[in-house]
């Protein structure tokens, strides 16, 4: 009979096991959404490789940089919006196309082509006098420390499509 008493669960042990189990389920119920919230962005597919039409034909692109605007669908958490972006597009001597991101690498202002009469044939940043050559390389001894970023681009059915902006190494 003493063996049966040792195998029996006391009232105190039963309550301890029950409360521990219920507490564990409650903690798991509270932690599961938090863990899902933390891991969810990692599980989402990256949408960074999409190309959008710049609405300019390949034959209309000249050797002089042209300002091109295009629209991109942007998702910030649960908010979706259409954002208008800008690129400076031109053909190089060899016929290849370059699409430059006009965001200055110094403070993020928008640069303009041939917009300053003191510096013709340069990209000029009006915020702090930053200069870039036609190919987007920063001019030494001016505020920018890196060249302008370049958009991924491709030609499909004679129309220019632009992708994400890729930063270039310091010149």
Q: How big is the Rg? A: 30 Å
Percentage of residues in strands: 25-35%
Q: In order across it, which strands form the biggest sheet? A: 1-9-8
Task: List low-pLDDT spans.
Answer: none
Q: Could you state the order of secondary-structure elements as H and E?
A: HHEEEEEEEEE
CATH architecture of the largest domain: 3-layer Sandwich
Task: Give the tally of structural domains.
Answer: 2
- Distance between the terminal alpha carbons, to the nearest Å? 89 Å
The description of the largest β-sheet is:
3 strands, antiparallel
Number of helices: 2
How many strands?
9
CATH fold assignment of the largest domain: Rieske Iron-sulfur Protein
Query: What general outline do the C-alpha atoms trace?
Result: elongated
What is the fourth-level CATH superfamily of the largest domain?
Rieske [2Fe-2S] iron-sulphur domain
What is the CATH C level class of the largest domain, in words? Mainly Beta
Helix content: 10-25%
Q: Determine the mean pLDDT.
A: 88
Structural write-up:
The protein has 171 residues and is an alpha+beta fold. The chain folds into two domains: 2-43; 52-166, Rieske [2Fe-2S] iron-sulphur domain (Rieske Iron-sulfur Protein, 3-layer Sandwich), CATH 2.102.10.10. It has helices at 2-7, 11-43, and strands at residues 52-57, 66-76, 79-91, 97-100, 112-113, 123-125, 130-132, 150-156, 159-166. Strands 1-9-8 form a three-stranded antiparallel beta sheet, with no helix packed on it. A hairpin with a 5-residue loop joins β3 (79-91) and β4. The chain is elongated, with a radius of gyration of 30 Å.
């Amino acid at each position: 009979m003493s063996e049966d008493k040792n195998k029996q669960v006391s009232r105190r042990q039963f309550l301890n096991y029950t409360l521990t189990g219920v507490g564990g389920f409650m903690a798991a119920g509270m932690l599961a959404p938090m863990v899902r919230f933390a891991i969810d962005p990692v599980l989402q597919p990256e949408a960074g490789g999409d190309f959008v039409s710049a609405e300019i034909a390949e034959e209309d692109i000249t050797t002089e940089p042209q300002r091109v605007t295009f629209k991109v669908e942007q998702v910030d958490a649960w908010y979706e919006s259409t954002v208008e972006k800008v690129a400076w597009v031109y053909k190089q001597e060899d016929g290849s196309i370059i699409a430059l991101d006009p965001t200055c690498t110094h403070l993020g202002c928008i640069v303009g082509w041939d917009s300053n009469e003191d510096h013709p044939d340069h990209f000029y940043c009006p915020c702090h006098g930053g200069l870039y050559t036609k190919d987007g390389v920063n001019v030494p001894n001016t505020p920018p420390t890196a060249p302008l970023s370049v958009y991924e681009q491709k030609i499909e059915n004679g129309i220019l499509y632009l992708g994400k902006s890729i930063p270039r190494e310091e010149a």
